[in-house]
Write a structure and sequence with these properties.
By secondary structure, the protein is of the alpha/beta class. It contains 12 helices and 16 strands. The longest helix is centred in the middle third of the chain and has 14 residues. The radius of gyration is 19 Å and the shape is globular. The mean pLDDT is 95.
Length: 330
């Protein structure tokens, strides 16, 4: 089958290759991939930014999000059958959405929302799981609390806004002038135009901040938190909890040192800091599918690319052009 594999770590490491079609294990489903989406995580994995934490060994197939049709099931799989339309974010070390087929642990799979096309469904798993886990599990968000979401027009931010509103929060977000109407339509209660406004002058007393921009933004975000609030970053320094999550507790001291400064800053302000890295979860995807089918949530797509143009789609995302999710189709 055709697949885009990371032949070696680096910006030029993604190559089209012919590889064997995978064979599903006892607990797996084999999926004919109809669409996959691109995430910043794909660039980070391709460039080797996680190579000491997630031990991918080149060559390996890239891609973290997909939707498709089940073509075979392992002997211990009873909840899916051939012909089921599914969507998934395969677990770490078993990714591979930029291909014609993939074998996925059935625990990571859910039936595709019936109201969504394959292209729309492929845009959902990673960002929807990230939004749900960050707000529900990490932040324990309660109705009436205040949430600041940075980059609200992006693939992750646009989903976090919707999930936070569903959970009953008051939501503020930062966005470019051209995207103000878009984030308001998503449900944002207060919108900060970052080209003309400083969010630290406009906001205060927030219970949760979700940052996807970097350390500078994260440090500023701490100042708008209420005492007891939490700053969650998907790009900031990893903390000791992340070492445990990925099954490498020996790295906890390293991550303690890496995050010491930001954690100390948060503590001084009476707040907390948490690095966030989402995990695969088919049961949560099944719940989220019901929210999409009820039109409580909806995917935000920028554009689609044909499968053979996957490198161009990656480059489009890396140039910061995407205003929503980028999807590759087969």
């Amino acid at each position: 089958m055709k697949a885009f594999v990371v032949d070696h770590y680096g910006e030029d490491g993604l190559e089209l290759a012919d590889i064997p079609t995978p064979t599903p294990g006892r607990n797996d489903v084999l999926v004919d991939i109809r669409a996959a989406s691109i995430n910043p995580l794909d660039k980070m994995v391709r460039n080797g930014e996680f190579k000491r934490l997630l031990e991918y060994k080149p060559p390996f197939v890239l891609g973290h999000d997909l939707a498709g049709v089940v073509t075979a099931v392992g002997e211990d799989v009873h909840e899916f059958e051939v012909g089921d339309e599914i969507y998934a974010r395969p677990r770490d070390l078993r990714i591979g959405a930029f291909a014609e087929a993939i074998a996925i642990d059935a625990a990571d799979v859910a039936r595709k929302p019936g109201s969504l096309s394959f292209e729309q469904a492929a845009a959902v798993p990673l960002v929807a799981l990230a939004a749900w886990q960050a707000l529900v599990e990490t932040a324990d968000l309660q109705p009436g609390q205040k949430v600041l979401v940075h980059a609200g027009a992006g693939g992750l931010g646009s989903t976090v806004i919707q999930v936070a509103k569903h959970l009953g929060a008051f939501v503020a977000t930062t966005a470019h002038t051209k995207d103000l109407d878009k984030v308001q339509a998503l449900g944002a209660d207060k919108v900060i135009d970052y080209t003309t406004q400083d969010f630290t002058r406009e906001l205060s007393g927030y219970d949760v901040v979700l940052d996807s921009l970097g350390v500078a933004s994260l440090q500023k975000s701490l100042t708008v938190l209420a005492r007891g609030g939490i700053a969650i970053s998907v790009v900031g320094p990893p903390d000791p909890g992340f070492a445990k999550q990925i099954g490498q507790p020996l790295l906890s001291p390293v991550m303690y040192l890496m995050s010491r400064k930001i954690r100390a800053q948060a503590k001084k302000l009476g707040a907390r800091y948490s690095f966030f890295f989402m995990r695969a979860d088919g049961n949560q995807l099944a719940h989220l599918a019901s929210l999409y089918d009820q039109q409580i949530l909806y995917p935000v797509l920028d554009r689609t690319f044909p499968f053979e143009d996957t490198p161009e789609a990656m480059a489009y995302v890396e140039r910061g052009k995407a205003n929503g999710k980028i999807v590759i189709t087969q």
